[in-house]
């Protein structure tokens, strides 16, 4: 079993217990950026991956039941950093590391802000930044910051789902069980995870723990499934995905 992981703090609770053999397993793990996780999954170089949620719409995939990386309110780590007021923004620099955050940005500009903007990889009026880079930048900027999970919640009424355990084929029940046990262990041991992350990254423990505890949630509830379906609807309208997928789970 080959599994690709995102080396972001927000994903640690889903796999820390597996990677560190707190829960015994025979899985081979690879760590990559979200966009690379998606490519390896699509090319079937791995069996399962933590991948941006929009990737689920791009192939014949399955989901691990009741696991996701989501935010019920503000996520902090997916944000727009503005150099001018939102209503004056004409250009947006995108973060190439997550197609889900890029799609969410485009949906919000089209349907919530109703602003026509140009998207670029160059300097721009505002910039989308994700993951640990966003957490670091928030600490060292005086720019206006727009939290995209908050914006989606205000727009749709739903929490936003950023990433999922996605499989490109059916897997044995024992592996599904491992992923679920790892999530439960992770959610119950956020202090250990925050400390481990800060030991290897230049980040403050209190801030890491607060982020994991108060900005993220990991259960794929009915509300979050509805949120995913609505997100796919808007993404399809903007031609960002080839189809509006039905949610299929490995244990069904």
How do the strands and helices of this protein lay out in sequence?
Elements: E1 2-6, H1 12-19, E2 28-32, H2 34-42, E3 48-52, E4 62-71, E5 78-82, E6 91-93, H3 99-112, E7 118-120, E8 126-130, H4 131-139, E9 144-147, H5 148-156, E10 160-167, H6 173-188, H7 190-200, H8 205-214, H9 222-237
Parallel strand pairs: 1-2, 1-3, 6-7, 6-8
Antiparallel strand pairs: 3-10, 4-10, 5-8, 5-9
Helix pairs in contact: 1-6, 3-5, 7-8
Structural class: alpha/beta
Portion in beta strands: 15-25%
| Overall form | globular
- How many beta strands in the DSSP annotation? 10
> pLDDT under 50 segments (min length 5)?
none
The biggest beta sheet reads: 5 strands, mixed
- What is the radius of gyration? 17 Å
Instruction: Determine the mean pLDDT.
Output: 95
Spatial order of strands in the largest sheet = 2-1-3-10-4
Reading the helices and strands in chain order gives: EHEHEEEEHEEHEHEHHHH
Quick tags:
252 residues, five-stranded mixed beta sheet, alpha/beta, single chain
Protein described:
With 252 residues, the protein is α/β, with parallel strands linked by helices. Helices cover 40% and strands 21% of the residues. The chain has helices at residues 12-19, 34-42, 99-112, 131-139, 148-156, 173-188, 190-200, 205-214, 222-237, and strands spanning 2-6, 28-32, 48-52, 62-71, 78-82, 91-93, 118-120, 126-130, 144-147, 160-167. The radius of gyration is 17 Å and the shape is globular.
């Amino acid at each position: 079993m080959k599994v690709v992981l995102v080396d972001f703090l927000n994903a640690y609770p889903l796999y820390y217990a597996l990677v560190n053999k707190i829960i015994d397993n025979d899985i081979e793990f690879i760590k990559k950026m979200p966009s690379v996780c998606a490519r390896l999954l699509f090319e079937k170089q791995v069996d399962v991956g933590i991948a941006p949620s929009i990737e689920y719409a791009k192939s014949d995939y399955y989901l691990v039941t009741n696991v996701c990386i989501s935010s019920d309110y503000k996520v902090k780590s997916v944000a727009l950093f503005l150099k001018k007021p939102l209503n004056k923004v004409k250009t947006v620099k995108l973060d190439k590391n997550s197609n889900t955050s890029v799609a969410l940005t485009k949906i919000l500009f089209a349907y919530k802000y109703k602003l026509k903007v140009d998207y670029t990889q160059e300097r721009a009026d505002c910039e989308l930044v994700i993951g640990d880079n966003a957490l670091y930048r928030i600490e060292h900027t005086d720019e206006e910051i727009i939290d995209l999970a908050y914006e989606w919640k205000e727009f749709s009424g739903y929490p936003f789902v950023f990433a999922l355990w996605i499989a490109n084929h059916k897997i044995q029940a024992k592996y599904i069980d491992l992923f679920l046990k790892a999530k439960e262990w992770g959610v119950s041991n956020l202090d250990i995870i925050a400390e481990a992350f800060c030991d290897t990254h230049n980040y403050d423990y209190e801030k890491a723990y607060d982020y994991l505890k108060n900005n993220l949630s990991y259960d794929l509830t009915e509300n979050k499934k509805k949120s995913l379906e609505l997100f796919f609807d808007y993404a399809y309208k903007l031609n960002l995905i080839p189809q509006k997928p039905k949610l299929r789970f490995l244990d069904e």
